[in-house]
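Side project, low priority. Logging it here so it doesn't get lost.
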Amino acid sequence: MTTVLRQHFPMIPDREEVLSEIHSRRELDMIFTHWTQEQQQLFLDYCTGVRGVKLLYDQFFKEIINPDSTPERLEEILSLLLETRIKILKVLPNDSARIAAETSLLILDIVVQMEDGSIANVEIQRIGYAFPGQRSACYSADLLLRQYKRLKGEKGKKFSYRDIKKVYTIVFFEKSIHQFHQFQNNYIHHMKQQSDTGIQIDLLQEYVFITLDIFRKKLQNKKVIENRLEAWLTFLCEDDPDTILALIKAYPDFEKLYKEVYEMCRNTERMMRLFSKELEELDKNTVQYMIDEMQDTIDAQKDTIDSQKDTIDSQKDTIDSQKDTIDSLQDKIAQLEQLLKTKKG
């Protein structure tokens, strides 16, 4: 069967070709047999163009949006998101002090230094972590401190705090947490520290959160890619063949990027290992997400219990106070009764 994507990209193999290669190689056949029927079908759909390939897969993103070999692609994405011209100077080693277990929810984590000295941490999360603000603030502070130490080491006594440049934390959520869904009309959130008096002081740390699930929902409703930024977001997260072809029609230069993707798909062994890794990470993600959600629920219930305990304690104090009042009144009544008895006597 010829799919709509295969009509446009003839290098995409058909189902029989992919299955023939899998079954002819024992190792690949064992991997394929180990998958569920649903997973097998999903893999074949990706390879044969029934569905578009998810560009958010780690290896695809690193291959296509590679800041070392094709920096202009990430430069354009960052320029559109930050609304200023961005030129990448170099990719920095990502040696931040992240908690190892947290990497399970990350699809990608790239740190780049721009021409003006500013730094951007680009992170893609398959499932949004709980407390994204706190996490982002911690890693932004870590990048800022690393920049400070590096510059102070390089410049020595000539170092000045004026040498420290902005740090941008840019997070793409494939599946965003519930707080973002309260803002269904917004899929990009810019954040930075500001004074309540209007005084302008550069506090260096800025954040951009992009909720791709909310973007996809908006795109499905309006069915029109309105600008270059939406084109890039569509390329990153959309796997519907008709939407992909609509993107190429509106922005023909994306066709070259898709050709690179489908050339990668011709390597069945590489695709299978990539897919297996993604399935494994998805299992970890789901478990970690459930842990975060359950911990969130536990914390909320604990707060409720603590609040109820405070209420009970307050009510107990009130009861004790009322009991003291009653006891005092009863003592006075007893005294009055005794006084009446004395007078009668």
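Brief comment: The CA atoms of residues 299 and 305 lie 10 Å apart.
Revisit when time allows.
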